[in-house]
Every structure is written in C-alpha cells, then in structure tokens.
Amino acid sequence: MVQLCQQAFLYRKRGAQHLPEALVKDVAQTLGVSPSETRQCISTLGHLLKTAVFEGSADPQDIFALFPGGFHKNLRDLLTKIIIDNMEKWQSDSITGQGRLKFCTTQCSLHPSSVYLLSKLHVRAMCVRNNMPGVHGESGICCNFHF
Predict the structure, then answer these.
(1) 136 — phi, psi (to 5°)?
(2) Which residue intervals define the domain COMMD9 N-terminal in the entry (predicted)?
(3) What's the rounded Cα separation, in Å, for the pair 64 and 83?
C-alpha cells in the first residue's frame, strides 16, 4: 500500500490516461481490478495525497476530514498513517520536484494563500534539509530562518 501511495503521489499531476502502462498493469494485477479502475484509483489516490500535502496537517482528524463519509474505516486509518509518515518527504519532493521556489514580483497569477503555502513548504523543507531545530510557531514553520 505504501508503494501504491508513493506511485500515486509521483504521478499526481498526470491525468489517469497518462499513467505508465507498466504501473497500471502491475497495480491492476495486484488489486484484481481492470486497467480503467486502476487508473481511476491511482488518480483519486493522487488527488487525496496532493490535497493532504497541500493542507499540511499531520493531525489524523484533519486527514480523516478529507475522506467521504462512510469510507472504509480500516483503509482510511491505513492511508492516514501512510500520509502522516510520508508528509515531510512529499512536501519536500513537491518543492524540489519543481526546481527552485520563485516568487512573483509583478503580475503574479498565484493567489496570495498559494504564495503563503509555497513559502511555508519551502521554509519547512529548508529546515528539514539543514537540520535546523529552530523555533516553531503556531503555523508549524521554522521561525529562525531569515529571508
């Protein structure tokens, strides 16, 4: 299940029709479902993981809120544990996978809350990468990092 989550996160930006055939075939065989259902599963899981990383909370209750009502409890609990265990890595990967973080100075098309989130992820990744203990404020970001 962890490997499936890793793959779903890796391919989260691709549409279901653009997943590697080898991945679709392996997952379909493992789960015993059709390739179409596999694409939908990976795509939906990728969306869930992307949303969880965007929200950035490691509180299980916050992650539970991302699941629809009536979702299988044991599967929800397992996915929540995987998300919490991989949150920092996926946040870091989200930043490094896009190259350096660049802030817009003129005619920025990003919503201000998106810029805040990107800066929060960037600072958190820098603190983790540089092993900076720092002071953590209410937002959970490293407050001793100077811009």
Answers:
(1) -105, 125
(2) 2-76
(3) 11
Alpha-helical (H) ranges within the chain are 2-10, 21-31, 35-55, 60-64, 73-96, 112-129
Per the listing, tokens 């959970």 go with: 140
Question: At 105, is the pLDDT very low, low, confident or very high (cuts 50, 70, 90)?
Answer: very low
Q: Which long-range contacts (CB under 8 A, 24 or more apart) does 38-47 make?
A: 40/16, 42/4, 42/7, 42/8, 42/11, 42/16, 43/8, 43/15, 43/16, 43/19, 45/4, 45/5, 45/8, 45/79, 46/8, 46/9, 46/11, 46/12, 46/13, 47/12
What is the length of the chain?
147
Task: Give 67-86 pLDDT, tens digit per residue.
Answer: 988 889 999 999 999 999 99
Give the single-character DSSP code of 68.
P
Q: Which residues contact 144 (CB under 8 A, 6 or more apart)?
A: 132, 134, 135
